[in-house]
Amino acid sequence: MTDDVVEGQIAQWRAFVQRRRELQQPDADELEDHLRSTIAELIEAGLRPDEAFLVAVKRMGGLDELSREFAREHSDRLWKQLVLAGDTGRSKSGWLGWLPMVVCAGIAAIAVKVPSLFGVDFDDDFWTRNFALFGLIPLAAFFAWTRRMKPLGIGVLVLLFTLGAVGANVFAQDARGTEDFSVEGLTAVHLPLALWLVVGFAYVGGEWLSAQRRMDFIRFTGEAFIYFVLIGLGGGVLTGITYATFQAIGVDVDPFVTKWLVPCGMVAAVVVAGWLVEAKQSVVENMAPVLTRLFTPLFTVVLIALVVAFTISKGGIDVTRDVLILFNVVLIVVLGLILYSISARDPMAKPGIFDRLQLALVISALVIDVLVLIAVYGRTGDAFGYTPNRVAALGLNVILFANLAWSAVLLGGFLGGKSPFRRLERWQTDYLLVYAGWAWIVVFAFPPIFGYA
Question: Looking at the whole model, is its pTM more than 0.85?
Answer without folding.
Answer: no
